[in-house]
Amino acid sequence: MENYFRMVVYIDNDKREIVTFLFQYEAQVWWECVERARDMSTMTWVGFVRLFKEMYFQASVIEQLEVEFLSLVQGTMSVRDNEVKFSQLYRFLSPWDALSLAKKFQRGLNASLRHNVALLELPTIAFILAKAMALEQDTQTH
Q1: Residue 3 has pLDDT above 80, yes or no
Q2: FRET partner for 14 with CA separation of 20 to 30 A, picked from 4, 58, 107, 142?
């Protein structure tokens, strides 16, 4: 839904209404209880997202995802699969600045790729990913 809301502009209240309309089962029951207990007129979108995450992503789960993110290395994965896993884990964490995130991704690459990419001093994950994928493809064809 966040991706959809980046494309179409809605006010906070509309975003919350759209998302909660899609809730089913225990999420719907949880939301009905929240609505009875809170003043919805003052709830921002950020507040709603925080409340939802507190309910469905307990601190221990987030902590485990952070540990997994910090220890993520490419290993036998392709560069693309590594990036997918990297992005999946990162989305649950507190934001990092772009340079720190790029350095973390680069450190997780296999040694030969990491060394070759590090020489280029690339500033973003997109550049690092593109170069690492090109290098990986080159080694597979030779």
Answers
A1: no
A2: 58
The whole-angstrom distance between residue 42's C-alpha and the CA centroid of its chain comes to 27
Q: Reduced to 3 states, what is the DSSP secondary structure of residue 9?
A: coil
Q: Which helix (H) or strand (E) holds 4?
A: helix 2-7
pLDDT of 4 strictly over 90: no
Name the residue ranges covered by the structural domains of the chain: 2-56, 60-141
* DSSP secondary structure string for all residues of 39-99: -GGG--HHHHHHHHHHHHS-HHHHHHHHHHHHT---TTS-HHHHHHHHHHHHTTSPP--HH
Measured from the Cβ of residue 90, the count of other Cβ atoms closer than 10 Å reads: 19
Answer yes or no: pTM beyond 0.85.
no
pLDDT band for 101, please (50, 70, 90 cuts).
very high
